[in-house]
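Practice record 12: protein with flavin mononucleotide.
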Amino acid sequence: MTHADTLETIMAERTSVRAFLPDPVADDLLDRAFAMAAQAPSNYNTQPWTVCLASGNTRQRLEDALVAAFDAEGFSPDIPFLMDGYTPLMREWMARHLVAQQAAFGVARDATEERRELLLRNFRFFGAPHVAFFFMPAFGNEREAADVAMFAQSVMLALTALGLASCPQTSVGLMAAPVRTVLGVGDEVKLLFALSIGYEDRTAKVARLAQDRLLVSGFLTRFA
Ligand SMILES: Cc1cc2nc3c(=O)[nH]c(=O)nc-3n(C[C@H](O)[C@H](O)[C@H](O)COP(=O)(O)O)c2cc1C
């Protein structure tokens, strides 16, 4: 196998997993994934990411706090989610995604209560034993967010290569207030998203969704 074959396999294997086994992952395996991802590029090598990794009691306290805070106050994002600006093409992909996800979880499109249950599954980290929170500096904008995103994708690919599964979650990232309270994080950073981490429950039909992608010709314009 060439390096390209190996990378292609890992990139195809990486998917957002939404059903985890409760078994905790050994610290050294998680450390290795983050150490591999630390090779990610960043503007001027500034590496502007900060990660809080919650397991055990803290993970449980977060789950409880997110569910309670959502019922009491709803979302509390550090960074607004500007979905109103989605282009027609983005809307189409989002709609396809929601249909696939709601079908996998057995949720009717118009069932408000069931859709809320889906959101709560996010707050329960889909049963994952670990959840990582990705922060960027509070002063930063898209530049620092791009650095953190490249780092986060590197973490996800490293986890996949190590036989682990993950799910990136903006839904959890929109709950900055309770996350900040439980983790004791100050306002020098803002929360981008969370990443649930663990071993995939391969018996669950909701674990992974089969989804299409744009063809390269759909996003790449060549100039010569
Ligand atoms: C930044 C980011 C935030 C996401 N937030 C959520 C989320 O809150 N809940 C969820 O179930 N999936 C979330 N996803 C997963 C996407 O739905 C998923 O990446 C997309 O549908 C493509 O599927 P795949 O990751 O399985 O290839 C998020 C993905 C990214 C990159």
